[in-house]
């Protein structure tokens, strides 16, 4: 695709607005092409949103690994002739914060796009069905968890916390392993979670639109629902982001470094993963309260 060929890695890494606009344009173009393909060639709506997610993740795969490599070029691990050891060119936070912002931007874009597509039925009313099924499963789990008596210290908070923490920890480890072995899997999981979030917000907005035509009230209702889950969701999503980034750091390190330099990269990967698990821990505590 011509748009991918003109992608400026250095500019995208240093200018997040450029990155967000560039990726948004790619997502819009690919979505319109997919709609055209289904409508005029297959004669129907885009009923299977996995097609769109796979196209978008394919685009991300052409971009994200380059940004990981750019991060290593900006803050490389170099041999220090005086100290006679491998040292990192930047602080831990400086080396990895930009990649975290990039993952956050991708998730926000996917959430916005799925919200828009589903709310306005751009691809037909059946689009988003898998996400809706996932939302129902989440509701069932939430309902079962709410059955624990809060007054029961032994069986209330700790049971809820252990279930939530164990489940989200498993997901985080999966993000990490997929990112190490194959970045595509981690990007797909991140995209899937963001798409579920976008569909959920669109369903809330649709329900609000049945009560009023005031767009401000509709958006405020959606925003209120979003703020309701924000305290724990922000930690959970951060945990998933960090786990995926930790895997990417390790994968790029294996590709670029060896010996003691690789050990430094492994250390960074472990620290980022642990930071992600701390976020998962905090999110589980908040959600279980």
TrEMBL record:
The keyword Transmembrane applies. Keywords: Membrane, Transmembrane, Transmembrane helix. Pfam families: SpoIIM (PF01944). The chain crosses the membrane at residues 17-38, 50-69, 99-122, 173-202, 214-234, 240-257, 269-286. The keyword Transmembrane helix applies. This is Stage II sporulation protein M. It comes from Huberarchaeum crystalense. The lineage of its organism: Archaea, Candidatus Huberarchaeota, Candidatus Huberarchaeia, Candidatus Huberarchaeales, Candidatus Huberarchaeaceae.
